Structure formats: structure tokens, C-alpha cells
């Protein structure tokens, strides 16, 4: 009987890993994401969590593994726990963000450098690229900024989710994600051709074309939410 119990215990142990949150050890089930494991350990996220699906960039995490010199970075909602992880959740990254009026700016490299002169301090260590959870070529994009290629930067950083891990690890203190956001805004505002159909639809909205229809939906939400749900499910959609 004792043998069976011991075997059972050993089996159970195999299904758990040890993690350290704020230096305190917890045993959590194998296969959980860092985010779920931290919650399993009894913590509640107030900051540092958002979509829980790898899109919002709110859950930047730094960790070390026992006996490993390397400092790792990850998104807590996308990375599964490993035995011996020492975890630090970042509620946010305190990088400076420039204030500007995008309408008054020119879409050039000089504009970007005027707001973020740190870019010129890049030492080409490529750490930013290595830590990016989106696998973006971050350093290359910074080089495109230096060359003034706004369009290329905008395209190459389109998938940036603003987690800020690049800025945390940069020895030149570049806030890459803010630099890229400014660049994409410059591109969107001044280079990308305007979408005519969006302009027309905006005009129609402002003229009140959809007011009655919208009011109907608001009322339906109060009186018959099931019908509203059905309408949503069966509404015609653009083909992907
Ligand atoms: S919570 Fe949004 S990316 Fe992790």
C-alpha cells in the first residue's frame, strides 16, 4: 500500500514545477503559462496583464533559471512555466514617451531623431532583436530610422505590441517601441494614401445616417439581447 502511495506521490510531483515569485517558492502544475501560474500561486494581476492572448504587450516578464547566467524575457501570457524560473513581472516599462502633434510633423528620419536622439546612440549589439517576443528585427528597424526610411520602419514594426522589453535591455537606452510608434504614425498620417471609403463612411456617420439604426440596437440590447446576439452572429462579413 505504501509503495502505491509513494508511486502516486512521485507521479503527482512530475506534474508540478517550482517557480519563484518575488523570491518565494511555489509549486504549480506543468503546462501553465507564467500568467496562469502566478495566479495559481495566489497573486492577482492589477497591472501587467491585458488581453491574455499575446496581442496587447502588457505582460512583459523577466526571468532567470536556476544555475543559468542568462536573463530571459517573455510575455507572461504566452510562455509556459519551467522548473526553477525566478520570475519578475513588469507592471509597465518606465520609458520616456515624446509628446508631439503628428499633424505638424514631417515624415523624415530627422523628425524622429529630434524626438528620440537616443536612436543615434545604438551600439549595434542586437540585444533588442534577441529579446523581442514578436521576433521583429528591431535593430534593423532602428538602422532604417537612422537612414530615414520611414516606410520600411512602419512595415517592419507593424507587429510591435509595445511590450517595451527591447527598451528594458538596450544599453543605449533607446525606447524602440515609442520610436516605432511615432514612425508608424508619421507613415499613416503623411505617407499612406487616404482610404476613400473610410472618409465617406465617416461623413455619413457625422451626418447621422446610422443614428436610428444604432438606437434600435441599443434598445434591443436592453429588451432582447438574444436577438442582438443572433443578429451579430448572422451579420454579413467581409471575406478574409
Ligand atoms: S496579456 Fe496581452 S500580451 Fe500578454
Question: Can you walk me through this structure?
Answer:
With 240 residues, this protein is an alpha+beta fold. It folds into three domains: 13-89, Beta-grasp domain (Ubiquitin-like (UB roll)), CATH 3.10.20; 102-191, Orthogonal Bundle (Fumarate Reductase Iron-sulfur Protein, Chain B, domain 2), CATH 1.10.1060.10; 196-234, no CATH class. Helix content is 43%, strand content 12%. It has eleven helices and five strands; from the N terminus they run αββαβββααααααααα. It has a five-stranded mixed β-sheet with strand order 2-1-5-3-4. It is flat. The protein starts with a helix and ends in a 6-residue tail after the last helix. 23% of the residues are buried. FE2/S2 (inorganic) cluster binds next to loops.
Counting DSSP E segments of at least 2 residues, the number of strands comes to 5
Number of domains: 3
Poorly predicted segments: none
CATH topology of the largest domain: Fumarate Reductase Iron-sulfur Protein, Chain B, domain 2
Arithmetic mean of pLDDT: 94
